[in-house]
Request: fold
Amino acid sequence: MSREPTAIGAVTADLFASIERQQNKRTPRDLALIERGLEIAARRPEGDEVTFMHSTLCAVGMPRSKVEGDTFSRINGNAAIELRAGKLWNGKAMVKQPLPYGPIPRLILAYVSAYAVRENTPEIPFGDSANDALRLLGIEKSGQGFRMFRTQLQALAACQMTIGFTSGDIASTFDGSPVEQFDAWLPGKEGQRSLWPSRLILGRRFFETLRDHAVPIDLEALSALRSSALAMDVYLFLVQRLYRIGAPLTLNWWLLKDQFGQEYVGADALADFKKKFRKALAQALSVYPGANVEVVRGGVTFRKSAPAVDPVTAKRLRAA
Reply:
């Protein structure tokens, strides 16, 4: 029987209650997310609250934690992504960058993609507008968050990306590297920080497919999940998938692990993944109150749900 979503989602409360019983506490962050969910349920995102994300990156996430080595790959059913660490010129030498990881690159891509889709341009200015990016993404202008923003932006700008997908009996591979060119201010300029971004230009193929396959996202909801890259990935998957579902879809825990938890290995891999995923799902559902999702025996059932962003609003925000 189909279950109707509530203002915050009965399944969200059930999940948090289950987690609370297991951990004997509900964290302040859990309570803050529930409160944020109630606020989100009472309004529809408009203007700067609406951002966009490439549909492939909603289905196949980037690294969630620091990667040892120069490559990262993830497969989700008929789609796959491979990232390779790159280098940036600092005015004197080519400097090797790490692979981007964690919540910050996801927020940066949300900001960059929103600008590209709204203005219909692959060229994203940062310079004077960098403070706007920091403000919208909720990042302080100093401290650890700021340093992580700069580091992850440089890592994202330098990395190379290959995307693969299967459609029918055709397997396609293309270079979808997100950034083609990265310009930064050199150290020594008055009032400028070392390699502070000036502008970046999206890769042609990435920009073209972004325009055709941009998924509208509630930026405040995504930002609220910034403490967990897994919760962000679950939220992006739900936003991209739920409004397109026909018949209810049930995924067992092994399939969910293949999609979201390939890094979990060992004898207790599935149990460890289930514990982390249930927590991340509860967090994601807290800020997507309209999601019609149910944890069932052996897995999770997903049902058609109202989109997180009103399609009319999203269409209006796209450049003509």
